[in-house]
Amino acid sequence: MNTCAKTIRTGLFVLFLLLGLTACNGAEPTSTAVVEVQETEPAAPTAEPTETPAPTSTPTPGPTDTPTPVPTDTPTPTPEPAVTVLVTDEESGAAVGGATVELSSSALGASFSQTTDAGGQAVFLALPEGNYIASVSAEGYATFRQSMGRLTGMVELTYQLKAMIAATVTADSTVLRSGPGSVYANLGTAEAGDVFEVIGQNDDASWLVVAFTGGSGMTEAWIAGDDVDVSGSLEKVAVAEVPPTPAPVATLPPVPTATVTPDATPDFITLYYVSNPNDILGTFPVRPFDGNAMYDNMVRMQLSLNTMAGALPGARAGDAAACASYVAAYNSILNSGIFYEEVPADWEEIDFAYVLSFIYSLDRTRPAYLSCVNSGQVDQFNHDLAYQTINQTLGLLNPTIAEAGGRLGR
């Protein structure tokens, strides 16, 4: 039975009950309030609860082992050479500001310059590795020079400057030479009033060594003590080593000539420069062995090499006469080249030394020769190369000449 029918029946029952009571009491009927019964929608059935599924546990991943990287050795970079120079006054110890510090390397063909600050310090960074010479100069002080050897890292140096001893030319003019005497090469001239820094002297102070700017670089020259007035005491000036007396420029012996029969054709040999194999050194005659002729050629070479050595300081300073002397001596060696065949066994070592001296000296003194020919002056690098080569050649040639002369009774 539905809810709507039950509600209607209940209303009718209540109505009949009220009517019956009224009749029994005999009372007049009164108006009766009718109670309106509203139909209501049945309540929605309550849904049965459903089971909520229990959450499932998700496994938490454990930490994984991260491999520790193995450290690798990082090579330590090689530091570039760096130099810190402190310049002070020798007597007071005070810093010398405004001094010029120059580091030069003839092997590298490089020069680096710095000016000291108020604290007397100059710093050179990132220098090419090599051998250097330091030069320090300041107004009123003697120029300081010192070989630094090979620079490979950080270097700190202190240089103490001495008060300059000056030489003022009093003669109308005087000659600057490569040694203490008129036999030495002429490096240039000085006029009255010219001032030079005195850096050395001979044992009786009759000749002084002065710093001399000749051509493109600083060099040293000797000046007669009678031609200058010196300010300062020479007692503080060291006695300088006197250069070897140059061999006098003598008339070289004539180039030996061989008697050639009309039907004979002399053999020749063509040689090339070792330093430049594409450049011909010369074409030279090859003749039958002649010990006396070989000896004369070696003596000629010896004289020419000594002449070249004596001319080098002047050629370095740009002196035209010195360059001409160097070139003439070089050509004397070149033009007298003769080689020998059928050399006896006991002369083979002498012949080898002769040939080696000839080729080696011409090859390595050629850059200075070309500098003189092309520019009238030899730079420091080629000056040093030629000087070293001449000394090395004479070191081999001199005893060879003595050996050959002993065998020939000369």
How does this model look, in words?
The protein is an alpha+beta fold. The chain has 6 helices and 17 strands. It has helices at residues 3-25, 291-316, 320-335, 348-364, 366-375, 380-408, and strands at residues 82-89, 100-105, 110-115, 121-124, 130-137, 144-151, 154-161, 166-169, 173-177, 186-191, 195-201, 207-214, 217-224, 228-231, 267-272, 280-288, 339-341. The strands form 5 sheets. Strands 13-12-11-8-14 form a 5-stranded antiparallel sheet, with no helix packed on it. A 4-stranded antiparallel sheet has the order 3-2-5-6, with no helix packed on it. Helix 2 runs parallel beside helix 4 (348-364) and helix 4 (348-364) runs antiparallel to helix 6. The longest helix is centred in the C-terminal third of the chain and has 29 residues, at 380-408. The radius of gyration is 55 Å and the shape is flat. The relative contact order is 0.08.
Content of β-strand: 25-35%
Binned, the helix content reads 25-40%
Total DSSP E strands: 17
Counted by DSSP, the helix tally is: 6
Through-space gap between termini = 167 Å
Q: What is the string of SSEs from the N terminus onward?
A: HEEEEEEEEEEEEEEEEHHEHHH
Mean pLDDT across all amino acids: 79
Radius of gyration: 55 Å
Shape category = flat
Parts with pLDDT < 50 across at least 5 consecutive residues: 1-44, 248-265
What is this structure, in a nutshell?
The chain is of the alpha+beta class.
Protein traits:
four-stranded antiparallel beta sheet, 30% helix, alpha+beta, single chain, 410 residues, 26% strand
